[in-house]
User: Fold these one by one.
Assistant:
Number 1:
Amino acid sequence: MPELPEVETIRRELEPLIRGKTFARPILHISSTVEYPTPEEFTAGLEGRTVSALTRRGKYLFINLDQGILTVHLRMTGNLVYSEAGRPREERFLRASLPFMDNTALHYFDMRRFGRLWLVIDENELNRLVLKRVGPDIFNEVSCEDFLAMLDQRRPSKLKALLLDQGFASGMGNIYTDECLFRCGLHPERRVSSLKHAEAEELYRAIQDVLADGIRYGGTTFRDYRNASGALGEFQSKLDVYGRRNETCRCGTAIEKKVVAGRGTYYCPRCQK
DNA sequence: AGCACCACCTGTGGGC
DNA sequence: TGCCCACAGGTGGTGC
């Protein structure tokens, strides 16, 4: 489900709703939702902690506390939903309930159960246990100059694989990668090493633009994504290629789909070189 | 190093 | 019409 714009949408919406609130005792409906520490340590450690700020790196959301950092990764189908009243309307796929002292709550839903929660004591532990292989946030922490310097001209991989590599830079997922490559007219199978300087700059620009647009429209609901209020995103109506196999590109050519870097990849064979 | 493949899960839509 | 299985916004491990 969620790529950078979806997580950022949740972050922006959630922060004013929960900043200053204090957690009551969490209920883990599926204990494997907690990756670290043990479920018992997680519930005991979160109870009584107060939210100070919400931050993000790539697809990771950090709920910073007066002591420690509650970390969330939604993977494919996770939803983090804030509810005014204590209990959610629909309990199917509810994996964890994180109530606050004032009887509001954060509910974590996840159909496929891939998403995870962590409770770490500080940034040091966060970097060591969670963010070992997570590169800088592509939207907030990488300037054009940085990006050009990061592009290793000897790197043999394809553009699609580069952008999906969270260790290179974090936040891009399958949808925004395809949309970004369409926007800058680069083929997903182009080799990183073949990029000219101007093309690399256009790629950087397209990444920033597509992510900004995704955030502006509240993310993409292709299937399951919901924001922190349970509402749908709206960027799906702006997609140029993703999910549009056999539809016509604005150039008149049919959009194709093939597997690149192990992921279903949509592109225009005429516009993208 | 990078890539292909599997694993983790559940649901569903497209093809036969 | 109905059934089945390929595939789905992600990532981590393994082995080549």
Note: The first helix of chain A runs from residue 4 to 18.
Number 2:
Amino acid sequence: MLIPIDVPFDLANTLQSGQAFRWRFDGEWHQGVVFGNVVRIRQSATGLELATQPDDESYLEPLLRDYLGLGVDLDVVYTSLSPDRRLSQAIERYSGMRILHQDPWECLVSFICSSASNIPRITRNIESICAAFGRPLGTGGPPLYTFPTPGELADAGPEGLRRLGLGYRAEYLADTARAIAEGRVDLMTLREAPYEGALRELTALAGVGDKVANCVLLFSLDKPEAFPVDVWVQRALQEWYLEGSERKLSKLNMRLWARDRFGPHAGYANQYLFHARRLQGRNGEERSHS
DNA sequence: AGCCAGGCCCTCC
DNA sequence: GGAGGGCCTGGC
């Protein structure tokens, strides 16, 4: 099935920019598990080619449009951000990179796992969690699994999760899974809530501080002003924007500074700065795109 | 061998 | 409120 696309969109940069951890690229197709389906997708000159199972492509198509962030008018975002010279350059380089609209539960678990870790390890951790506690999806190829529900992870318990190599994140995950499973926090409700209130509810969860919460708010809870400050964004701000004593701002104060500077679309500014800075490597050397 | 990761949490000042 | 150290595990 072909989905026509007539707006700015870059599938590869959208799926491989550290927002989600279950997409694999084989040089031609991107394959992932979303909405309980194995989804294979690739971009052509006219649109997106799609193959899904077990459900029909026609059923997944609107869901995927939403997931891929195609509902957002990127021209509005770009117009708002491009007066900034750094951003206009990044927008030109990575034009069409979008912020995903993910499932909040999967997003929350993923970023709890991300603390003091790296993408290869996070990816392995998430895959282990799905293989151990998710539901198998018949594919014919290597086995794939759905993302486990809050109840399934709560039942796994801290010991079950520790066995997967999650380290100290296992306790956080078990606690948070229980809080969600028991309905103490309703993630879907947070989509309608204002930013500040949703942030407070999220940071009350185990293993969720300001950075993780802002990732969840930005990538899954419809908060375009969210601005997660990790070490990459911290470096980008310090090297490209801040002067003198401003460089010593705490990460939390950097978030406030950025919200003030970039405005209601600060989240998109964050994603483009993050991507641009990360591709430069730890010491600022250019890194090849392999 | 030792240090540091795409943080969080707790203690202490 | 904010600076500092500990925390699992893995990679350099």
Note: Residues 104-220 of chain A form a domain with the Endonuclease III; domain 1 fold (CATH 1.10.340.30).
